[in-house]
Write a structure and sequence with these properties.
This protein is mostly helical and about 210 residues long. The protein contains ten helices and no strands. The longest helix has 24 residues.
Length: about 210
């Protein structure tokens, strides 16, 4: 993982605070990737981030806050490589690639269940994540409609919800019993939802 701590940016206390929070989030994500979220302890995060344990707790008072920071950073890395308009085409491959980061997927699943409580620190995060994911998927579907590949009568918001629901459901099943190809299954479901083949989507989505 690229260490961004120390990269030049805005000066002053705000910049230092931002850099420290970033360093802590990177350390937390590294531990999750290597050991799983249940193995994360504040002392280890502090050591990796080059800070004191009280310094980490100042920025992230609870373990849930640290784990949420790790999830946000993981999303940032993933979405920074996703060109706008390619969410549909890349969804099956992204579903498979995410399982290579199985510990992040397990963290996501665990916190998603807990976030149903409005008081949980991840409650707003998952609402924001769904909205952001829908915006990207809807834009991708609209481009396919504009290209004449997908029926213009299809509601892109409903289609986006169906695709994300299929993705989450398949991911949960795969975590329980890893006996199917999630990329192939999600691709098949997207074809049924949009009424076109992944090959057609691929051709229409490429620049």
């Amino acid at each position: 993982m690229t260490n961004t701590v120390g990269v030049r940016g805005p000066r002053g206390a705000y910049a230092k605070t931002k850099q420290r929070r970033r360093a802590i989030a990177e350390a937390a994500l590294e531990i999750v990737l290597e050991k799983g979220h249940r193995s994360l302890i504040t002392a280890d995060v502090a050591q990796r981030a080059g800070l004191s344990e009280p310094g980490v707790l100042y920025h992230y008072p609870t373990k849930d806050d640290l784990l949420l920071a790790a999830l946000r950073l993981s999303d940032e890395f993933e979405w920074s490589t996703m060109p706008l308009g390619e969410s549909v085409r890349r969804a099956p491959a992204r579903a498979a690639e995410s399982l290579a980061r199985i510990n992040v997927v397990r963290l996501h699943t665990a916190m998603f269940g807990e976030s149903s409580d409005p008081a949980h620190p991840a409650h707003e995060y998952f609402k924001e994540r769904w909205r952001a994911g829908d915006e990207r998927m809807v834009e991708s579907i609209r481009r396919l409609q504009a290209a004449g590949t997908v029926d213009s009568a299809l509601d892109p918001y409903r289609a986006s919800r169906w695709i994300h629901t299929a993705w989450e459901g398949l991911q949960l099943q795969w975590l329980a019993e890893q006996n199917f190809d999630i990329e192939a299954e999600l691709g098949s479901l997207i074809e049924r939802i949009l009424g076109v083949t992944m090959e057609e989507i691929d051709r229409a989505s490429k620049p």
